[in-house]
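Subject: complex prediction, re-run

Hi both,

The earlier run crashed halfway through, so I resubmitted it with identical inputs.
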Amino acid sequence: MKEVIIAPSILSADFAKLGEECAAMETAGADQLHIDVMDGHFVPNISYGAPIMKSLRKVNKMFFDTHLMISEPLRYIEDFVKGGADRITFHLECDNDPMEVIEKIKSFGVLPAIAIKPGTPYEKVVPYLPFIEMVLVMTVEPGFGGQSFMADMMPKVKALREIIEKEGLNVNIQVDGGIDKNTIGIAAKAGANIFVAGSALFKQENYAKAVEEIRSAAFA
Ligand code: DX5
Ligand code: ZN
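This time it finished cleanly. Structure:
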């Protein structure tokens, strides 16, 4: 059985007490913090940027999984590295050359990852698999938390997992959007191993219980 990595999306946290919220997630046993950056251009919404992350970095030692939903990632990689990113995921649909973005991320010793939107075929990301640490298959249209899981993305996850195994590559598959204790099993079965969850974790009363429930539901 593959290791299940749970990454709470801070988009659903109470920003007025972000530090405490993230500390509570760490205590609750979450593995990575998923940090959604939206520019109001690549996606309709605006969330937060590198300065918020930098402040959080000072009080939190967790793995920072940065999801850039922005048009020109190349311009901001250095800012997010300085903000304390451990992994930087950018969208294949962005305006920059993917290989150039990957090289830039790697030049800082940070892990590069590529995300694909629901409308993007998995084949498009295949040429980059040997150069990235993770592929993110979006299971909602990026831009907002609290949307419903798109089970019809699972064939993409399956196909990518098969290619990764066949080629002997060391690439994680992340799913993001609508993941909760009812849907995580579907994504795990398809071959995902890193699970982002916003509402299903931050909107719960008891974080430890929520993390445990979702984790144990992955391979139930
Ligand atoms: C959507 C973001 C997600 C979002 C997930 O654009 O990339 O990370 O926060 O939220 P839930 O888990 O509520 O769907
Ligand atoms: Zn995300």
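The chain has a mean pLDDT of 97.

- K.
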